[in-house]
Amino acid sequence: MRKILGRLSSINVQKVVWCCDELGLDYERSDVGGKFGGNDTPAFLAKNPTGLVPVLEEDGFVLPESNAIVRYLCSRHSAGKLWPDDPHARAQVDRWMEWLSTSFVPAQRDAFWELIRVAPEKRNAATVDASRAKSEKCTAALDAQLANRRYVTGETFTAADIVVGCAVHRWLNLPLERSARPNLERYYGDLRSRPGARQVIAQPLT
Length: 206
Ligand SMILES: N[C@@H](CCC(=O)N[C@@H](CS)C(=O)NCC(=O)O)C(=O)O
Known about the structure:
Blueprint: E1 2-5, H1 11-23, E2 28-30, H2 42-47, E3 55-58, E4 61-64, H3 66-77, H4 87-117, H5 125-145, H6 159-172, H7 182-192, H8 198-201
Parallel strand pairs: 1-2
Antiparallel strand pairs: 1-3, 3-4
The structure holds glutathione.
């Protein structure tokens, strides 16, 4: 039995849902965190002392942290495809997962928060602008990376595309003006057509 604990509006939960769907794995997901609560109970904190979602449970094995979960699932269930066996290929996948968590998601966080979660009359335009400027640097880099590759690390889809794809979905659906990024838009179109991406792509920003 496989369970995902976490609300689908969370980008970190989306990574795990997309990963399971991509791999064709069965699971039950329960809404935890945000307006649903349930992540401050002793039972949840015993699974993840940080009180954050997602948490994966698989036959008694418990694992929090979205990127760690994606790496685990892909290494266990994709036979070297989404988490390559070759150390060099794997390091490139890992590198883009790190970039996602340490650069792109932090850059877009304030714009997401202000434009989606803050009431219009309380929004801080300067905060949005600063976040947009940082995000534009990230998308320029990603667009350049995608200029001569179908996916982030090459011609095959990997774990990096799941996590980067979740953030690209968020960025391209924020109600703000963006620079044209033709390679990024082509990439997003490609990701959108994947059956594994359906639940995440259908998820409005909330
Ligand atoms: N590094 C963690 C971050 C997890 C995280 O920040 N989760 C947020 C949702 S995106 C959360 O649990 N917030 C509290 C809540 O939803 O109640 C991961 O990648 O899993």
